Amino acid sequence: MIISIASGKGGTGKTTVATNLALSIGTGVQLLDCDVEEPNAYLFLHPKFDETLLVTASVPEVDKDKCDLCGKCDEICRFRAIVRIGETVLTFPELCHSCGGCMAVCPRGAITEGARELGIIQKGFCNGIEFIHGKLRVGEAMSPPLIRKVRSFTRPDKLTIIDAPPGTSCPVIAAMKDTDFVVLVTEPTPFGLHDLELAVGAVRVLDIPCGLIINRSDMGDHKVRSYADEQGLPILMEIPFDKRIAVAYSRGEMIVKVMPEWKEKFLALLQNIKRLANNPGAGV
């Protein structure tokens, strides 16, 4: 089973939920941190990394001695990653989506496959948890290829928890796609509600069952709960605004270690997720 932990905006507690759920389950779970632009799950779990992999994307390289400036590569590329200008052909690797179209249409075989560094993937373990995260290269604009590479390490023999990037853009879709259940973490504020509505829309386009966790639930207003009720969105858990939780977070400590009673709550969360994944209309 694959569970994505997502949110419409940053700072709602998404990583807190993902890491504490993984630690509560323990052995037999893997946590994939797909927030590759700013991965921070490792700051809480402190895994021991035993493998680092360089991830690259294919980009075109043009042999100007073979190129006859026919322009077919320019015509097929919708991202303007390769263009004919006057008597030369220019490539822009940062714009390339690695489709290979330019190489396929080149009649003279003048375009070959080069490589652009996207970032790295690190693999390790912590308390029986298999931990994998990606780190996007500074200055790299496209994170979905690296996210998909992290996702490729999903193991069908384990329960997989994905810490998705915040928001509703392409990186989030790459992290959530083809998962069994999405947990949306929000907070009861106007901003939280606005971004939750966007996130719910994205999840429903993907046709994935989802549920809601309200963090800092005793603050703000009740509009998030009203929205959840209107949309038939089950509230799986409420995490109160508790000074002990805030202090633990600021120190990089886990809630389930500082407040052991929360372990049972996260295990109950898992059972609710499994029940709803098998029967999306069951409610909570």
Rg computed from alpha carbons, rounded to a whole number of angstroms? 22 Å
| CATH topology-level fold name of the largest domain | Rossmann fold
Q: How many separate structural domains? A: 2
Q: Can you count the helices?
A: 11
DSSP strand (E) fraction?
25-35%
Give a quick account of the main beta sheet: strands, pairing sense, barrel closure: 9 strands, mixed
The CATH class label of the largest domain is Alpha Beta
CATH superfamily caption of the largest domain: P-loop containing nucleotide triphosphate hydrolases
* Net shape: elongated
Helix content: 25-40%
Q: List the strand order in the largest sheet.
A: 3-6-7-2-8-1-9-10-11
Query: What is the typical, i.e. mean, pLDDT?
Result: 93
Low-confidence stretches: none
Termini separation comes to 19 Å
Structure explained in plain terms:
The protein has helices at residues 14-25, 42-45, 72-76, 101-105, 144-151, 170-176, 190-206, 223-231, 243-250, 255-258, 261-278, and strands spanning 2-6, 29-33, 48-62, 82-85, 88-91, 111-126, 129-136, 159-163, 181-186, 210-215, 235-239. It folds into two domains: 2-55 and 120-278, Rossmann fold; 64-109, Alpha-Beta Plaits (2-Layer Sandwich). It contains eleven helices and eleven strands. Strand 9 (181-186), helix 7 (190-206) and strand 10 form a beta-alpha-beta unit. The mean pLDDT is 93. With 284 residues, it is an alpha/beta fold. Helices cover 34% and strands 28% of the residues. The chain has a nine-stranded mixed sheet, with helices on both faces. The protein has a two-stranded antiparallel ribbon with strand order 4-5.
